[in-house]
Design a protein that fits this description.
By secondary structure, this protein is an alpha+beta fold. The chain contains 1 helix and 8 strands. It is elongated and about 80 Å long.
Length: 135
């Protein structure tokens, strides 16, 4: 066998092995259960009944601290197993208060000193007012 054909043969086998490993890793990744879970704490339905603001605790296992989060979803829908779409508070014991100032305006109240990030991924019909208060 000439050297060029041997090189092509080895390269072909190498690519086949790499592709097989990539498929195996993808299959294992897709079959693993989601390590995170959401625990509903407080819910508040909008005045028009279309949306629900939900405060929940997100726990992603032993390697991360759990956090308090807020999402807005369509009323009657299941809370998805994902991060909050409105607010993330990295203090597990500080649960924000939720209220509505009309059908399209959610008010989220939480302590001023907590480490929080607004996410701003609420449905486009909903505006969110964040109020930080002293306890």
């Amino acid at each position: 066998m000439p050297l060029n054909r041997v090189t092509q043969w080895i390269a072909g086998i190498g690519l086949t092995i790499v592709a097989g490993l990539a498929v195996a890793v993808l299959v294992v990744y897709m079959t693993l259960p989601d390590l995170c879970e959401n625990e509903r704490l407080i819910a508040s339905v909008s005045p028009d009944g279309k949306y629900e603001a939900i405060s929940f605790r997100r726990n992603c296992g032993a390697t991360t601290s759990y956090s308090a989060q807020v999402s807005v979803i369509r009323a009657g829908k299941e809370l998805p197993n994902e991060s909050g779409s409105v607010l993330v508070i990295r203090d597990k014991d500080r649960i924000p208060e939720l209220g509505w100032d009309g059908p399209g305006k959610l008010v989220v109240i939480y302590p001023y000193y907590v480490d929080a990030s607004s996410v701003d991924e609420a449905p486009h019909e909903i505006s969110v007012e964040y109020i930080r208060v002293r306890e």
